[in-house]
Amino acid sequence: MNKADGKITAEDTAPATTGLPVLPPLSAIAEIVIVFAMIYGLDALTPNQAILDLSPHPFWIPVLLVSLQYGTVSGLIAAAIAIGLSMFAGLPEQDIGENLFTYFLRVWGQPVLWIAVALLVGQFRMRQLAVKLELKQENRELRQQRNDLARHAGELRGRVERLEQELVARHVQSPHKAAAALADTIRKGGLGAEADRHDALLQASTAIFPNATIVAYCLHDRVLTECAVVGRKPDTGSRIRIESTDPIYRAVVDHRRTLTVLDRLGELALAGAGLAAVPIAGGDDDELFGVLIVESADPEQLRPEGLAALQLLAYALAPRTPRRESLPLPAKDYSEVTPRISHIRMSSLAGITRRGIASRNEVAPNGRQDRRTSLISLLEQAREDGTAKVTISKSGEDSGNTTDESAVPTIAGATGDR
């Protein structure tokens, strides 16, 4: 992968090799043919020079070049071709008095040297090629690791951005929004109204399980069918109908169980249909309205708290009679209400003169003694006796004295010196 533009190069897509190839490359064979053709071409162009009879022999050129460039195998092929061409031209005649050993040494000494040089020089080249191949493999592995780290860093960056968005949305969103949505769903009757089922599921589910795919199934004649979908298009899921023989039906409808893929039984029952399933109660206790299935959601929402929230969502979606919205009562204004007196300092009563008491001991126009007159009289008597605990009762018109605890204040004080 190119670091500058992020494009994948041929080295990244090349298959990884574990060793050097045995057969020589086609370029080595082509070079051998070209070099030998050039030697024979020069020999044909200069017949007076006798290039093939020069010493050292011109066949050393292809043997050395190919061995240094491609290694042992290519060098041996070049040496074999050189030996074959020299033998094809004919062996030199044995000189007079030359023994057989000297003759064979003169004839086969140079071809044997070609083979030895091809082996020796080729092995050095093969070691270099092996080191080069190992470095290429390490380079490929490092490049792959770099690409994996870059991809992982990109995924982490995207996850951090999503978490930041969720954190911001979590702080912006009111903590009581989910409760208000569930309360509004319950007030409107849940999934009872067939025309408003999608809106009810959308309002309640998005408040508790955002970005989740939730499907509500209605039970009719022992068959569960989709009646509301959030998160995908209707009738496009893996389970549009759930028959009575389905494991989900038997577990949720027959046994009233809550299924989740986090346990073995739930994983076998759901079998790719979703992540969790809970029953939706009906009007009666024994009646079942349907099943609520979470097809896809954030893994954080599948914890025990999420399953409890899913059960609460199913309870809110249970069909019920819609309730009329009650108007809030007006707030009372208690700013002008005088607080009840519980403690009175006796020193504040010392300034009450008997003349003031006498002026207040007047009979009310309706023939009833003023309540304040009796209060002041009792307080004066309490000051003289050293106590301040006085209970004031309301006098009845016809049937004696009756105590009204809600309307008569109780004055609880201390001794006369307080």
List strands and helices in order, with pairings:
Layout: H1 10-13, H2 26-45, H3 60-70, H4 72-88, H5 100-172, H6 177-188, H7 197-208, E1 213-220, E2 223-230, E3 241-242, H8 247-254, E4 259-260, H9 264-270, E5 276-281, E6 288-296, H10 304-317, H11 354-360, H12 371-385, E7 390-391, E8 394-395, E9 401-402, E10 410-411
Antiparallel strand pairs: 1-2, 1-6, 2-3, 4-5, 5-6, 7-10, 8-9
**Mean of residue pLDDT?**
76
The Cα radius of gyration reads 53 Å
Strand order of the largest sheet: 3-2-1-6-5-4
N- to C-terminal distance: 93 Å
SS-based class:
alpha+beta
Largest sheet features: 6 strands, antiparallel
Q: Give the count of structural domains.
A: 3
Q: Give the helix level as a range of percent.
A: 40-55%
Count up the helices: 12
Tally the beta strands.
10
Contiguous low-pLDDT stretches (5 residues minimum) are: 1-6, 327-369, 392-418
Strand content: 5-15%
Along the chain, the helix and strand elements come as HHHHHHHEEEHEHEEHHHEEEE
Coarse morphology: rod-shaped
Summarize the structure in words.
The protein has 418 residues and is of the alpha+beta class. The protein folds into 3 domains: 10-154, no CATH class; 177-317, GAF domain (Beta-Lactamase), CATH 3.30.450; 346-411, no CATH class. 48% of the residues lie in helices and 10% in strands. It contains 12 helices and 10 strands. It has helices spanning 10-13, 26-45, 60-70, 72-88, 100-172, 177-188, 197-208, 247-254, 264-270, 304-317, 354-360, 371-385; strands spanning 213-220, 223-230, 241-242, 259-260, 276-281, 288-296, 390-391, 394-395, 401-402, 410-411. Strands 3-2-1-6-5-4 form a 6-stranded antiparallel sheet, with helices on both faces. Strands 7-10 form a two-stranded antiparallel sheet. Strands 8-9 form a two-stranded antiparallel sheet. Strand 8 (394-395) and strand 9 form a beta hairpin. Helix 3 (60-70) runs antiparallel to helix 4 and helix 6 packs parallel to helix 10.
